[in-house]
Design a protein that fits this description.
13 helices, globular, about 40% helix, alpha+beta, 5-stranded mixed sheet, single chain, 3-stranded antiparallel sheet, about 325 residues, Conserved hypothetical protein from pyrococcus furiosus pfu- 392566-001, ParB domain
Length: about 325
């Protein structure tokens, strides 16, 4: 390991400042911006120093350094990724280099991954020995969880089960109630409750690759099932066959009550009438909602989730009418949309 104050990373010199951080020199920054990252180079020395005092005090130990993947500890709550996602990113990284740094937490002599699990898996797919990372020291458990949440918030295939796990760990780390957690992450309390209700599902189900390809509503339906084999089966159907909506609800009911499902299938109803649990209608600029909730058949969290979906479908076809404003006498009012 290079022990001097100046190290070479991707053929670009980083200089250690008085506060122990590593910054790229202007010439090197311009040079590296004009070419894709190159795997290799030296790993910057990791300083042993105390973080600055403060509730959220952290110290940047190094930035943009290549760290041997074998030295990186992957926590159990690391974000899962599908094989398709790993393969696609691996191709991009092989062609263009690693565009974004992963983040590591220096904890004693250990380097723990905070985010960048997908980049690490894709680097391994390419047989890379090192991953380009930023390293911080003094991060609390809560900070690491919040950083991971923020990093993964924009991912299209973020697993709701993974979000639920992070939420629960964040509650434990900071001693939060569900209401306080909702404020901490900037989400509605009902949405937070839905995520946390997924924690009853076993890790054997939540950590499978298919968990990245299902929506929150699909996960809530899967959570109703009592058998692990049924949960795995339906999750695969959701991810690969796009099982959703009423078809998903019917599938879950059939697995929960197989005998009842067989008898209903054999019976011939005189008149087939589709029950609509939610009805919406605009009146005087206000939305009238008629809903039927059967506590014995559906938990309230799933009910509100279904109502959100039904409302979204309704307003796409019937958008809110324009509100009529008062006009002076003799003026012509604009027609409502």
């Amino acid at each position: 390991m290079n022990t001097t104050n100046e190290v070479v990373i991707q053929a670009a010199p980083y200089v250690r400042t008085q506060d122990g951080t590593y910054v790229k020199t202007p010439d090197a920054a311009a040079a590296s911006a004009s070419q894709p990252p190159i795997l290799g180079g030296e790993t910057a020395p990791i300083a042993n120093h105390e973080p600055v005092a403060g509730v959220y005090a952290t110290t940047t130990v190094a930035e943009g350094v290549w760290v041997p993947i074998s030295q990186i500890i992957i926590p159990e709550e690391a974000c899962p990724h599908t094989q398709e996602d790993i393969d696609s990113r691996a191709v991009s990284m092989a062609r263009d280099g690693q565009e974004q740094n992963a983040l590591l937490s220096k904890e004693g002599d250990k380097l723990v991954l905070v985010y960048g699990h997908g980049r690490l898996l894709s680097a391994q797919k390419n047989n890379w020995e090192k991953l380009r990372c930023d390293i911080k020291e003094g991060l609390t458990e809560a900070q690491k969880l919040l950083l991971a949440l923020a990093e993964n918030a924009e991912r299209e295939n973020e697993s709701p089960f993974h979000t639920a796990t992070v939420y629960q760990k964040l509650m434990a780390a900071k001693g939060l109630t569900q209401e306080q957690l909702a404020q901490e992450v900037g989400k509605d309390i009902s949405l937070v409750e839905r995520y946390l209700s997924l924690m009853k599902v076993t890790p054997a189900v939540t950590q499978t690759p298919h968990a990245c390809g299902v929506s929150l509503r699909q996960c809530l339906a899967i959570a109703k099932l009592t058998k692990v084999e049924d949960q795995l089966k339906v999750m695969e159907e959701c991810a690969t066959q796009d099982l959703a909506g009423k078809a998903l609800e019917k599938r879950v009911k059939e697995l929960l009550n197989p005998a009842k499902g067989d008898s209903e299938a054999s019976a011939k109803p005189a008149v087939a009438v589709e029950e609509k649990p939610f009805q919406f209608r605009w009146k005087d600029g206000k939305l009238l909602i008629k809903a039927v909730y059967a506590p014995g058949e559906l938990n309230f969290i799933q009910f509100t989730c279904d109502m959100d979906d039904a409302y979204s479908a309704f307003v796409k076809v019937h958008p809110a009418p324009a509100v009529k404003s008062a006009h002076p006498e003799g003026a012509t009012a604009q027609p409502a949309a």
